[in-house]
Amino acid sequence: MSKTNLFDLDGKIAFVSGASRGIGEAIAKLLAQQGAHVIVSSRKIDGCQAVADAIIAEGGKATAIACHIGEMEQIQGVFAQIREQFGRLDILVNNAATNPQFCNVLDTDLSAFQKTVDVNIRGYYFMSIEGGKLMKQNGGGSIINVASINGVTPGEFQGIYSVTKAAVISMTKVFAKECAQFGIRCNALLPGLTDTKFASALVKNDSILNTALQRIPLKRVAEPSEMAGAVLYLASNASSYTTGVALNVDGGFLA
Ligand SMILES: NC(=O)c1ccc[n+]([C@@H]2O[C@H](COP(=O)([O-])OP(=O)(O)OC[C@H]3O[C@@H](n4cnc5c(N)ncnc54)[C@H](OP(=O)(O)O)[C@@H]3O)[C@@H](O)[C@H]2O)c1
């Protein structure tokens, strides 16, 4: 019997935002292992270059490009570069997000509100528009939005962040419905608590961590690599009939 590999990404061009560390780095490395040429992106080029170099050292294909997804000109600039350098895009992983303020909702600061909306909603939205236009030219592609369990049930003291993650789940369904006709699928990943710099304030505080673990049936925090398999599924042909889905990878938290 001949083997088929539904997860093969040979010849695909993939862009991963926030790929210099954490969940994005794990996603970039797994997509590259499956054969994709991965564009490793975040605000600071040094961290991206280190991840791209590590991929290349393992025999994979990667290019580092800096892009602050909260800046519209940088979104336009990165897509101009992708068009010129690659001429196509098959997989877009919107992963980079921000959560600048932990506070009671009544204490929300306007600049933190604006930054969170600009990066987590406007950034994902216009990255998807630019990515979608490029995918449409080549007959389709897959957009994966990294949202959060907080988009379903808000995290304490994470008001506007949770609101933006709910918006990401909504925008996933919008793009899924309106871009299906162009061969573009769009799905969301909803990570639970994952051991990264982003979550260090929660994971490194024993009292917060123990409270969180009581609500996680698997009784542990996730490793970044445990998010990547779900993204590979959503990026590849294995999920060819899946669009508009919000996939919980949360150790059972939302159950
Ligand atoms: N960790 C968790 O427990 C958890 C749970 C649920 C959902 N999530 C989601 O998972 C995603 C990744 O989080 P993580 O935990 O892996 O975070 P992380 O380890 O802190 O990594 C964040 C990445 O995003 C980049 N970044 C930050 N702001 C950016 C911006 N404005 N434009 C472009 N890149 C930016 C960072 O690099 P630079 O500093 O170089 O820009 C870095 O590469 C986020 O969408 C987050 O909301 C995480």
Automatic annotation (TrEMBL):
Pfam entry (one): adh_short_C2
PROSITE patterns xrefs: ADH_SHORT
Superkingdom of the organism of origin: Bacteria
Gene3D superfamilies: NAD(P)-binding Rossmann-like Domain
Family the UniProt entry places it in: Belongs to the short-chain dehydrogenases/reductases (SDR) family.
PANTHER family assigned: DEHYDROGENASE/REDUCTASE (SDR FAMILY) MEMBER 4, DEHYDROGENASE_REDUCTASE 4
Identification of the protein by name: NAD(P)-dependent dehydrogenase, short-chain alcohol dehydrogenase family
Origin species: Pseudomonas panipatensis
